[in-house]
């Protein structure tokens, strides 16, 4: 299990080719005693995977240095690599120090575990999102979703049921670091009214008039051209209720739940991300049945717009048969979902 040499590693590229995190800073590579390190506050609810540790110890692949929070000497990312080094009897190993708060160090740990190595489970990512929401309530749903590997809609639902996750002010910090209003629903409706009264106005003119970005105005205009509501369903159902909750002390709307799990029903966006995560799990994609399941799921993960097109394309005399077959397929998938739920009980 060799580690990359100090002069060849660039986990995050900076001005010399490495990309720094948006918060905090990563140091150049250093080699330190393993005994000086504290174990990570891991986003993995089940802790470390002993099998993965053994696999790393027996691997000939060159591994990147682990990430350590300098202020506490606690591992941020790389506990499996650390355990593998201990298993091999090593006393020192290369690290990069993270310069930032402990809260930001946890965000970095989640981001890195989502992007590489042993995948985090859905439960791991949901729990991590809840923790980030408590430590960074001013961050937008999209910013936290990007860090935790979830959809913004899922993060929004988690925010509603998480104590201390509501922003104190009516604004949020986006992925680009810019501060924006907590909800653009009202501004979107104002934009739709302005467009109706001034159809020749440019995107920038409408944006300046109602206080939103030209990109948002473009989305509003496109929605109006398609005959849709200017406010996306996610904002109507989630962000407006969250904005109202901010102004009601001690009261938060109860999240909608499924009968079995209490989790919000996944959207098409959620399903696509879940399929990608499942496809990256070696225990699924490296087995014949796992690959077969992934192929079936990829075939049936049809976006809503495509489903409408398919329904319109079926001749009227065939709709009863097609509908019956669709119900049969839905029942089969629901039965599989119940079987999977049963394995978690």
Automatic annotation (TrEMBL):
Xref: InterPro entries: Chromosome_partition/occlusion (IPR050336), ParB/Sulfiredoxin_sf (IPR036086), ParB_N (IPR003115)
Biased composition (Basic and acidic residues): 236-257
Domain ParB-like N-terminal: 32-114
Region (Disordered) location: 1-23, 225-272
GO cellular component: chromosome
SUPFAM superfamilies named in the record: ParB/Sulfiredoxin (SSF110849)
Gene3D superfamilies given in the database record: Conserved hypothetical protein from pyrococcus furiosus pfu- 392566-001, ParB domain (3.90.1530.10)
UniProt GO BP: chromosome segregation
Domain of life per record: Bacteria
Protein name (Swiss-Prot/TrEMBL): ParB-like N-terminal domain-containing protein
